[in-house]
Amino acid sequence: MARYEIIIYWSDEDKAFVTEVPELAGCMADGATYEEALRNAEIVIQEWIETAKELRRPIPEPKGRLVFA
Fold first, then answer.
1. CATH number of the domain that 24 lies in?
2. Percent composition of the chain: helix, strand, coil (DSSP 3-state, to 5)
3. Is residue 61's pLDDT more than 70?
4. Count of domains for the chain
5. 8 and 18 in contact (C-beta within 8 Å)?
């Protein structure tokens, strides 16, 4: 599995943990528990990559932890 940064946070509005993968545009998932959200994120990352390959779109190399100045 690729090593993309995954951000996980609780959403009061959704009553679920939400994950975002900043390096993959629009790549998000959720889950009732932290663990479920993380598992769902891993699935969505693979689906995102498979779709990008099918559409012949570039797939960003994982950079690991992102640092903002």
1. 3.30.160.250
2. 30, 20, 50
3. yes
4. 1
5. yes
